[in-house]
Amino acid sequence: MCRATAAPNVRTMTFRPLLVLLAAAVSLGCLVAPSAVAAEGASRPQLALPAPTGPFPVGKTTRHLRDESRADFWVPQERRELMVSLWYPALLPTGRRAPYVTPAESAALVQALKVPGVPADVLTTVRTHASVDAPPLPRPAPLVVLSPGVSLPRATLTALGEDLASRGYLVAAVDHNHEAIAITFPDGRTTGCLACGSEDGAGASRNRAADVSFVLDQLTGPDAWPGQRVEPRRIAMVGHSLGGASAIAAMRADDRLRAGINLDGRVHVQPDGLDRPFLLLGTPDHQPAGRDRSWDDAWSGLTGWKRWLTVSGTGHNTFTDHPLLAEQLGMPLPEGQTMPARRGTEITRTYVAAFVDRHLRAGTGPLLDRPSYRYPEVRHWH
Predict the structure, then answer these.
(1) What are phi and psi of 83, to 5 degrees?
(2) Under a CB-based contact definition with an 8 Å cutoff, are residues 28 and 326 in contact?
(3) What are residue 99's DSSP bridge partners?
């Protein structure tokens, strides 16, 4: 098994943990060029996400959405375009496995490394658990919108999205154009990240709020989901990093969003009396009077049901698929994370599911009300 020294500090830009772990893999011989694999008879890394925990098989389809009424925030001469992954509970797990990323997206991520010898398609080898265009379970269901961190593609929330769908939710993960290091569109274009390095967090959050409202317009019509229908009063938004911060802006702008979760995102738009359920779930950096005081500032403005939880042993990207891939490549976990990757994924899935079950399905249970012996890492602040 390949071993590595500690990774450099990568918290400042959210796409770097994945790039760093791949670069380190090359330098340490964990990943080699295809020709070297062929010459030595070595096998490619077998990357896989953990299986969903719910009772339903999962289907997946992809949508390209274009808002003709709105200029792009980053390129004003363009109309705003989005790519959306739709996971849903399926009748049967028929069809091919859904790809994790497109070849062009994988190649763009690898190219950003500027390190020779990395297989351009390495991220296309990640094994998912959804079947492309599987027949849907024909019944109305709640909807959860997922929004990734800036520079991160929507694929990095696949483990969470598949799990929610297996529990009976419709899930829409949004790629916000020019805000990820690579987004491939059906016509073959792959756009890059113009938002990376931007300091306009408030503007970016409000832009994402408009994106989410447009997505809801497209997905809540009678024929938006083949064989299924979104329950219009049961919609939540869950985001990581900027996506989590944008959940507050989106809920302020659109009352169709009945509940929201911020996964370790710095708040840029204050809630100002937001009276619908909201969960703050993050690293110890976000504990009261911690390194990031934006949650302290936002707390009083959340006037509905609310919880503030932090998880010891986590880093900023614990709440995404990155640590899962890092461990399988034999790489160090992202900075700040000491718990095993699967444990971080289990906690993320469990607490997100408990929240949406409670507020979209009137579920009950003490998990969000007091500390659990099953999850001693999770600290309740309010």
Answers:
(1) -110, 135
(2) no
(3) none
Q: Residue 184: exposed, middle, or buried by beta-carbon count in 10 A (0-12, 13-18, 19+)?
A: buried
CA-to-CA distance for 23 and 345, rounded, in angstroms? 24
What b/e readout covers 92-126, taking b as 16+ CB neighbours within 10 angstroms?
eeeeeebbbbbebbbbbbbebbebebbbebbbbeb
Instruction: Look at residue 27 in the predicted model and tell me its pLDDT.
Output: 35
Residue 31 has what pLDDT? 39
CA distance to 54, 184, 339, per residue, from 47 (Å): 22, 21, 19
pLDDT digits (tens, 9 = 90+) for 14-60: 444 455 444 444 333 343 333 333 333 345 557 899 999 999 999 99
Residue with tokens 């718990």: 339
Q: Which two tokens stand for residue 225?
A: 């989901």
Summarised one tens digit per residue, pLDDT across range 184-203 is: 999 999 999 999 989 899 99
Give the integer Cα–Cα distance in Å for 382 and 370: 10
Distance in Å from the first CA to the final CA of the chain? 43
- From the list 85, 175, 152, 202, the residue with the least C-alpha distance to 320 is 152
Nearest to 139 by CA among 65, 56, 208, 69: 56
> Of 62, 60, 78, 58, which Cα lies nearest the Cα of 70?
78
> What is the token pair recorded at 249?
């802006």
Q: pLDDT for 121-154, tens place per residue? A: 888 999 999 999 999 999 999 999 999 999 899 9
| Residue matched to tokens 């009396």 | 273
What are the per-10-residue average pLDDT scores of the chain (382 residues)? 32 43 40 34 70 97 96 97 97 92 87 67 92 94 96 95 98 97 95 93 97 96 80 96 97 98 97 97 95 95 98 96 84 87 97 97 90 96 90
Q: Does the pTM exceed 0.85? A: yes
Distance CA 19, CA 25 (A): 10
